[in-house]
Structure formats: C-alpha cells, structure tokens
Design goal:
This protein has 286 residues and is of the alpha+beta class. It has helices spanning 6-20, 27-33, 44-56, 76-83, 103-122, 178-197, 213-225, 239-244; strands spanning 25-26, 60-64, 70-74, 126-131, 138-140, 143-145, 149-154, 162-169, 203-208, 234-238, 254-255, 261-262. The protein has 8 helices and 12 strands. The protein has a 5-stranded mixed β-sheet, with helices on both faces. A 3-stranded antiparallel β-sheet has the order 1-3-2. Strand 7 (149-154) and strand 8 form a beta hairpin. Helix 2 packs across helix 3 and helix 6 crosses helix 7. It starts with 5 loop residues before the first helix and ends in a 24-residue tail after the last strand.
C-alpha cells in the first residue's frame, strides 16, 4: 500500500466507522466503497488489517455469516466515535450477529447501498442523506412502514433533492398465494397513500433479488391499485441490473406500472417503448 499521511489514514478510519452506521459490511464491500474514502484500499487484505485494528480498538464488532464470510458492525465505542458521547446508544441487539435467515437480504442490501454511494461519488452527485435498514420510518393511516433504505440525492447545479426509497424483495413464496398478494398490495397501497401526503415527493424502487414472475406480478398489482395512471411513484427492477450497470442512477433500468422504462434520477431518457412481460428479465431492461 502506498505511503499516506497520518491525517488521511485517520480520516479513512472515521469514514469506515461512518459507513458502518448505515449497514454492516464485509471486506469486499468496504474495498469497493473505499473509492469514496480519503485513501482507497487496493485489496481486501489491507481492509482486513485495518478492520482487525478497529476490532482490537473495540470500535467495531466482528461476526461471520453462515457462509463463513466475516463482516463488521459498529461497536458502542464506534458509535461514540462517530456521533459523540452525548448521543444515545442503540439497543443491544444492534451489535448482535445477523440472523442466518436474513443473511442474503442483508448482504444484497449492503451491495446496493455501496453501489449507490460509489456511483454518486463518481458522478459528482451529492448524497444529502442516507438511511439503511430500520433507520427510517413512514406512518400513514395508523400504519408504520420501515423501508430497507432511503437516500436523498442532489444533482450538480440544482437545489432540488430527489428522494428514492429502496425496497429489496428476496421472497421465494408463490406470487399468486393469498399471503404474497396481500403483502404486496399493502406495500403498494401504503406508499401510494403516504407519498400523496408527503411534504415533497419521493419515488419507490422495488428491486427484485432474482429474475422471476414476481416482478411482473408486482407491476400488475401496482397498475391495478394505482387509481391515477399519471402517478408514477412506484417502480420495479432487477437488483443485478443495478449492481452491474455503470450508471444505475441516471440510466433507465426501472419499469413503471405500464412497463415503460424509467431512471431513478433525471438523466438519460428511455426510448418510448413498452417492455413485453416475457422480456422483463432480459438484458433489454438493463
């Protein structure tokens, strides 16, 4: 690793701790995110050395997924390092290992959050705020919804903040089961109702972990529940298309209820076309 100033290395330590306030991360995710740090990492081995030091200093806690991959969360002392001693500490469960049943969801969501941060950094897009899983909540009609992530963006030269709410679908149950239908319907109805009364506006990106009929079914439900065809609040897409694309924020990778291509942020315009259902999982969407 090339020589760097003590101040830069200390700044990187702080940036790692700040990143862990949003989501748990493994070595590869930290390496990718480090392009936004004062001193980027050149390999996972250097990440592990730094994380071992942070662990020895009791700033992070180290856990291992059932797949044997190590990951880190912020420790109590780490929270105080980021927020100061006066901020109340999170509940003790914050420091515990992630349930095996939530491993895939947690890792894939962390991949998404890292990808979005790196893309914004390279595109000179300001991230005004960012909340990870369980860190933000919406209430409407006596119902509270906790999104998987919520990120606010500001484009260069613009005052407007574009807010994207991210939901990650890793479900495997049959899409036409009453339980699955009811769950999707409640999510769609909630966001349509809440966004209409929200001070400002936001868009929801429902990203599906794997290609399946679930995406097609979800868009059908949005089309049926959305009573105003002019409203395009809820969009859907494939997580892998976002993770693999060079500019997932401004390139049309998402689909509206009528299968029209759309981007998360203003940027490249999609050609006026409707994507047929059999092609929803194809590279055409990307």
């Amino acid at each position: 690793m090339p020589s760097n100033s003590k101040e830069d290395l200390q700044a990187r330590r702080q940036q790692i701790l700040t990143a862990l306030t949003i989501t748990p991360l493994d070595a590869e995710q930290i390496r990718k995110l480090s392009i936004t740090f004062a001193v980027p990492f050149t390999g996972e081995e250097y990440v592990r050395r730094v994380m071992d030091k942070l662990h020895n200093d009791k700033l992070v806690v180290e856990h291992t997924f059932p797949s044997s991959r190590k990951y880190w969360k912020l420790a109590k002392l780490g929270y105080q390092q980021v927020y100061g001693p006066d901020k109340p500490l999170p509940s003790p469960k914050t420091y515990r290992p992630i349930s095996p049943s939530l491993e895939r969801h947690t890792r894939r969501l962390a991949d998404l959050i890292v990808k979005i941060q790196v893309t914004a950094h390279l595109s000179d897009i300001e991230i005004v705020f960012i909340y990870g899983d369980g860190q933000a909540s919406f209430t409407s009609g006596g119902v509270t919804k906790i999104p998987d992530a919520m990120i606010g963006f500001r484009l260069r030269g613009r005052k407007q903040i574009y807010t994207i709410v991210f939901e990650l679908d890793c479900g495997t149950e049959p899409v036409f089961s009453p339980q699955a239908r009811d769950s999707l319907d409640k999510t769609i109805a909630f966001y349509l109702q809440h966004e209409s009364s929200f001070d400002g506006s936001y868009r929801v990106a429902m990203l599906f972990d794997k290609p399946s009929i679930r995406l097609d079914h979800f868009l059908d439900r949005v089309a049926e529940i959305n009573t105003d065809p002019r409203r395009r609040v809820i969009k859907a897409g494939l997580l892998n298309n976002v993770l693999k694309h060079g500019d997932p924020l401004r390139w049309p990778l998402l689909l509206d209820w009528d299968r029209q291509l759309a981007a998360m942020l203003p940027g490249n315009k999609a050609a006026a076309q409707t994507i047929p259902s059999p092609l929803l999982d194809a590279q055409l969407v990307a």
